[in-house]
Amino acid sequence: MTGRRRPLDGGIGNDTLDGYDGDDSLNGGGGNNVLFGGSGNDTLVAGDGNDSLDGGYDDDSLNGWGGADTLSGGAGNDQIDAGAGNDWASGDDGDDSLNGWDGNDTLFGGTGNDTLIGNVGHDSLIGDFGNDSLYGGNGNDTLVAGDGNDTLLAREGNDSVDGGAGNDSLDGYDGADTLIGGAGSDLLSGGTGADKFVYTAIGDSAVGVNHDTILSFDGVGAVAGDQINLAALDAKSLVAGDQAFTFIGTAAFTHVAGQLHAVATNGGVDSLIQGDVNGDGVADFEILVKGATAAAWVAGDFIL
């Protein structure tokens, strides 16, 4: 069925509805349906069943309702509500808003500045390009922002939160979360639970004003038991193989590669965690940890 500037209703059965040009309203009804919005600002409603919705060009509204649906916004600034079921949705081009609602959903923002909300279920949210906002909701979620200056809030559950490139803000909220700031000057908060702050490259947190900042850290001596994970970093860049760091407390570097220490800053109320990987006695990376005194750090606060 095809239409132009008029509503289309598939009714009962497995239907294919094509809006073609114009601002269309397509309702799949019962069955497993395929809906194409085409050009124009379209409204596509899947109904029950496992449906496929493609908004096409312009600014569209897609609603999956029940079933395991596949929803693609296409070009334009789209609103996508996946509905119940385990859905796959992509905003594609434009500044899009995607909500997974119920089920274990996979949401892709695509290009543009997108907002992705997992809501209920164990969801995967991938922001891709642009300055994106990702909100996990309930469940054990995976949030990956990609390029851009992004905001990631995992909320309840044991979540994996990856800011990617850019100056990002990451908040694990409840649960035992894994936070990866990635490249850029990032702001990280684990919230409650035993959280891991993971660094995979020396350049993830630069020395100086562009370092990462960890807002909440409760180490091995606290109930939460947070840790900074540096296991992926080669502590001795001039030595073959993958070497581990040696934590030397608050002592100064002694021109030995692989040393890690804590330095008091901001009047002693905060700490800089610094590492020397080439043995020149100068920090090659540093992480600012708010509210943690330098003397309180122990080797168990790190995965070296």
Which short descriptors sum up this protein?
304 residues; 13-stranded parallel beta sheet; 16-stranded mixed beta sheet; mainly beta; elongated; 32% strand; single chain
Task: Describe the protein in words.
- This protein has 304 residues and is an all-beta fold.
- It has a domain at 1-101.
- The protein is 0% helix and 32% strand.
- The protein is built from no helices and 29 strands.
- The chain has strands at residues 7-9, 16-18, 25-27, 34-36, 43-45, 52-54, 61-63, 70-72, 79-81, 88-90, 97-99, 106-108, 115-117, 124-126, 133-135, 142-144, 151-153, 160-162, 169-171, 178-180, 187-189, 196-198, 212-216, 227-229, 246-247, 259-265, 270-276, 285-289, 302-303.
- A 16-stranded mixed beta sheet has the order 1-3-5-7-9-11-13-15-17-19-21-23-28-27-26-25, with no helix packed on it. It has a 13-stranded parallel beta sheet with strand order 2-4-6-8-10-12-14-16-18-20-22-24-29, with no helix packed on it.
- It is elongated and about 75 Å long.
- The model has no long low-confidence stretch (mean pLDDT 95).
- Residues 1-25, 68-102 are annotated as: Disordered.
- GO terms for molecular function: calcium ion binding.
- It comes from Defluviicoccus vanus.
- It is found in: Secreted.
- This is Calcium-binding protein.
* Computed Rg: 24 Å
Largest sheet data? 16 strands, mixed
Strand ordering within the main sheet: 1-3-5-7-9-11-13-15-17-19-21-23-28-27-26-25
Tell me the β content: 25-35%
Q: What number is the mean pLDDT? A: 95
Which structural class is indicated by helix and strand composition? Answer: mainly beta
Count the E strands: 29
| Helicity level | under 10%
The end-to-end span amounts to: 62 Å
Low-confidence stretches: none
Number of helices: 0
What's the shape?
Answer: elongated
Order of helices and strands: EEEEEEEEEEEEEEEEEEEEEEEEEEEEE
